[in-house]
Amino acid sequence: MIFRHCTEDELTLYYYGDTRRSRGIRRHLAVCASCAAQFDEIAGTLSLVVPTEAPERGELYGLEVWQ
To answer: In the 3-class helix/strand/coil scheme, how is the chain assigned residue by residue?
Structure first.
């Protein structure tokens, strides 16, 4: 088995629930303190992001777009 650290992109996708490699990443995080610490840092930062809802479109939305 080749030991490879998780990339920042992989850890970000794992945070958001990407299921393609979740099991492998979860196992890796259980044995790799470096990647686990990096994941904790990423998760802490991403947890600060508050999703916002898009405002509703007004009746003149189509006209505004085309102008």
So the answer is: CCCCCCCHHHHHHHHCCCCCCHHHHHHHHHHCHHHHHHHHHHHHHHCCCCCCCCCCCCCCHHHHHHC
